[in-house]
């Protein structure tokens, strides 16, 4: 059967194969051309049943090959036999059909019985009925793959004993006629091709039938078949098909290997307008690529980036462009797809806020941490979504911002400046510079950004996060050193002594026996040993039974002595295992969308929530092990992560007065960084290939980011800018695609909701 690609019944007859591009013997096409030249051709036949069609086809045979009455009766009886189809329904459906339908018995293909029906497609699949065949009683799931408005074509080929010469007929009906269960699904039928011949050539007949089915699924030949008035028109259409044919030499490939459908098909228009291969200029495709680029135009050469020559002219245009669509942003969100997108983006921003908050806390001594990252993400995202020109954009803290925060904190520490106050003045200057850029319509410069610039900046953002994560993991080896020298046989030699300055008082440390020693104390000193081994004592055994932990020992001014004091579980190793496990499981779950397990909806759901599922799985493993792995520092109440700071940052008091002026210099660098990050993300999201209908808002978006800089600087929250990766994920979760698609065909992309 064919819709756009061929499907075969696999060996054993249990199921259909995967859709594939049909590979035809060249000789079968020449034989098909002969059949069309010498066989029966009926165009615009007016018939309402399959019996009428067969009668007309048998009567319309050429005079030189006119059939005898008895032979005509044999052929009519054969062609009007009840067809049987490859079952594509569940066992329960099959039992119901067998109990309610007279269509019983097994399919005899090529065995002298009913010749095999090959549903092809106009863009379609099948349906027809001799006499009047009963309709299938239950809905066939295959019909959901058929595009709306499709009609069926039928190809019946086989061998019979009573024929000495082949009988062929090509029939086009004047109007589509429902022929019952002749086809696999109930569709109006338009084309019928019949080829019956004597025995010993069944393979050749089969290939000719496949060639006709392939022709009927070709868009250009379909047009010819629809409009043909004479036999010669069909021959001309087939000659045009042969002109485009590509032949593979024998022995250089395996004909049994199915060629999968391509991800992108050449349209019929481009096939008719494209020059022949011999006329194309050589040069590694440079000329062709240049032509394609010229036809498509720059992705952002649109009215959003045209200069008006007036102060805030571009901003006013963005507002006028946004206003008519503002209400639809809320009404469009009532679609169920948006609910899953909201949940997906919430989890994506939460995981990003956790990651960035943890790194920012390490870089700034918790002056900004996870809680500040959470609050800033919520506030900035809320304001930006309501008032920006492109609310599909998701704000987040990015890698370049993390690098700048780390450098600014180090500079402040080295020069005795208050970090948050210094940062406040930088943020105010950045906001001022941003408003100036909006007023002068500087966003029109993004039209000169190339694809190389866009991809390079995205790679920089990703590499910064990758570098920081690896650096953080490697630093664990300093805090939790790996016990390379640990041997199980040497457990009895591990000792740890708590040395205090107070009077000697034996204690117990970590389940190990310990005592304190003091300069000048005449009492015995007891070494610490594993309780599982015999304690090695000085002249007197310890008399203390009270426990003294490591923290208590250090808080009382003592210090630990002995090789056993440095022993810690291999926290670093388990952290690396969790680190790698999270990444690998996330990658595998992301690729689950293209796997062959579970229905499409389940695969898409797992792929969308891959990040949060991977994190939850690793956290569950960590909790089950119970090791003291490093955790994020998150306050249990709504207060700053670092208790030394408040929620409002005062502009004066901690730093000299001239800091407010000097801050303009680093602010220029931050402005360039934010402008590049924001506008490159906007350019990527507003490409023509995404088919956005509501337009962009480059100037309005930059104004929103600039004003948010004021609020986040005053409150000591992280700075936010458009996040490319999360924004693209947001776009992906709101894709609109065609509901039905042929087997093997990718759903048509309709745009972004």
Structure description:
The chain has helices spanning 26-38, 50-59, 69-79, 91-100, 202-216, 219-227, 231-243, 268-273, 286-296, 313-322, 326-331, 336-363, 370-387, 399-414, 419-439, 451-479, 550-555, 571-590, 600-608, 610-625, 659-662, 664-685, 698-715, 724-733; strands spanning 40-45, 116-117, 120-121, 152-159, 167-178, 188-197, 395-396, 497-499, 507-509, 512-514, 559-561, 721-722, 735-737, 749-752. The chain is of the alpha+beta class and 753 residues long. Among the domains are: 1-82 and 148-262, Mannitol-specific EII, Chain A; 320-451 and 645-752, no CATH class. The strands form 5 sheets. Strands 1, 2, 3, 4, 5 and 6 form a 6-stranded mixed sheet that branches. A two-stranded antiparallel sheet has the order 7-12. Strand 9 (507-509) and strand 10 form a beta hairpin. The longest helix is centred in the middle third of the chain and has 29 residues, at 451-479. The two termini are 35 Å apart. InterPro entries: Band3_cytoplasmic_dom (IPR013769), HCO3_transpt-like_TM_dom (IPR011531), HCO3_transpt_euk (IPR003020), Na/HCO3_transpt (IPR003024), PTrfase/Anion_transptr (IPR016152). Residues 310-753 form the Bicarbonate transporter-like transmembrane domain. One of its GO terms (molecular function) is sodium:bicarbonate symporter activity. It comes from Brachypteracias leptosomus.
């Amino acid at each position: 059967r064919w819709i756009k690609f061929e499907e075969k019944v696999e060996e054993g007859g249990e199921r259909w194969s995967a859709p594939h591009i049909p590979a035809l013997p060249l000789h079968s096409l020449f034989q098909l051309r002969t059949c069309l030249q010498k066989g029966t051709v009926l165009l615009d036949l007016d018939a309402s049943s399959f019996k009428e069609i067969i009668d007309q086809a048998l009567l319309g045979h050429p005079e030189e090959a006119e059939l005898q009455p008895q032979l005509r009766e044999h052929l009519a009886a054969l062609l009007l036999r009840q067809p049987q189809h490859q079952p594509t329904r569940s066992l329960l459906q099959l039992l119901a059909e067998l109990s309610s339908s007279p269509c019983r018995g097994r399919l005899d293909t090529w065995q002298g019985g009913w010749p095999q029906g090959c549903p092809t497609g106009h863009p379609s699949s099948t349906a027809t009925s001799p006499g009047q065949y009963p309709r299938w009683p239950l809905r066939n799931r295959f019909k959901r793959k058929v595009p709306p408005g499709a009609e069926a074509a039928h190809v019946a080929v086989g061998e019979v004993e009573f024929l000495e010469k082949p009988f062929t007929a090509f029939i086009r009906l004047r109007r589509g006629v429902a022929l019952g269960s002749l086809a696999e699904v109930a569709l109006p039928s338009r084309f019928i091709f019949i080829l019956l011949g004597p025995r010993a050539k069944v393979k050749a007949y089969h290939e000719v039938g496949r060639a006709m089915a392939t022709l009927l699924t070709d868009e250009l030949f379909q047009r010819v078949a629809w409009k043909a008035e004479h036999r010669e028109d069909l021959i001309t259409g087939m000659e045009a098909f042969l002109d485009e044919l590509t032949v593979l030499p024998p022995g250089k490939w395996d004909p049994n290997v199915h060629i999968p459908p391509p991800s992108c098909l050449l349209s019929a228009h481009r096939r008719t307008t494209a020059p022949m291969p011999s006329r194309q200029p050589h040069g590694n495709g440079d000329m062709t690529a240049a032509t394609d680029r010229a036809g498509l135009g720059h992705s952002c050469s649109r009215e959003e980036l045209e200069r008006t020559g007036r102060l805030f002219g571009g901003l006013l245009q963005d507002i006028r462009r946004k206003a008519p669509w503002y209400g639809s942003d809320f009404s469009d969100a009532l679609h169920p797809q948006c609910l899953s997108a909201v949940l997906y983006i919430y989890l994506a921003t939460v995981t990003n806020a956790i990651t960035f908050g943890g790194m920012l806390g390490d870089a700034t001594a918790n002056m900004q941490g996870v809680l500040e990252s959470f609050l800033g993400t919520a506030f900035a995202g809320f304001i930006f979504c309501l008032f920006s020109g492109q609310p599909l954009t998701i704000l987040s803290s990015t890698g370049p911002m993390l690098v700048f925060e780390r450098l600014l904190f180090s500079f402040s520490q080295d020069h005795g400046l208050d970090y948050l106050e210094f940062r406040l003045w930088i943020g105010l200057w950045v906001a001022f510079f941003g408003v100036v850029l909006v007023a002068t319509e500087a966003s029109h410069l993004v039209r000169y950004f190339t694809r190389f610039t866009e991809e390079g900046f995205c790679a920089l953002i990703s590499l910064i996060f990758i570098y920081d994560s690896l650096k953080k993991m490697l630093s664990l080896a300093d805090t939790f050193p790996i016990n390379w020298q640990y041997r199980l046989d040497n457990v009895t030699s591990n000792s740890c002594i708590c040395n205090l300055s107070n009077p000697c008082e034996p204690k117990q440390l970590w389940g190990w026996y310990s005592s304190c020693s003091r300069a000048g104390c005449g009492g015995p000193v007891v070494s610490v040993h594993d309780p599982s081994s015999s304690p090695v004592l000085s002249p007197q055994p310890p008399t203390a039974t009270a426990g003294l932990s490591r923290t208590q020992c250090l808080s009382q001014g003592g210090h630990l002595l002995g090789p056993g004091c440095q022993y810690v579980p291999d926290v670093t190793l388990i952290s690396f295992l969790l680190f790698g496990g999270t990444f690998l499981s996330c990658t595998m779950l992301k690729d689950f969308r293209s796997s062959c397990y579970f229905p499409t909806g389940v695969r898409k759901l797992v792929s969308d929530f891959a990040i949060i599922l991977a994190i939850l799985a690793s956290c569950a493993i960590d909790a089950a092990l119970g090791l003291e792995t490093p955790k994020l520092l998150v306050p249990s109440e709504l207060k700053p992560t670092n208790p030394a700071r408040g929620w409002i940052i005062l502009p004066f008091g901690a730093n000299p007065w001239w800091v407010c002026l000097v801050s303009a210099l680093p602010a220029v660098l931050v402005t360039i960084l934010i402008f590049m990050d924001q506008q490159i993300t906007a350019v990527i999201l507003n490409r023509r290939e995404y088919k956005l209908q509501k337009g962009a808002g480059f100037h309005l978006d930059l104004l929103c980011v600039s004003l948010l800089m004021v609020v986040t600087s005053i409150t000591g929250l992280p700075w936010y800018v458009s996040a490319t990766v999360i924004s693209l994920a947001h776009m992906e979760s709101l894709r609109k695609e065609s509901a039905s698609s042929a087997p093997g065909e990718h759903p048509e992309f309709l745009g972004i909701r």
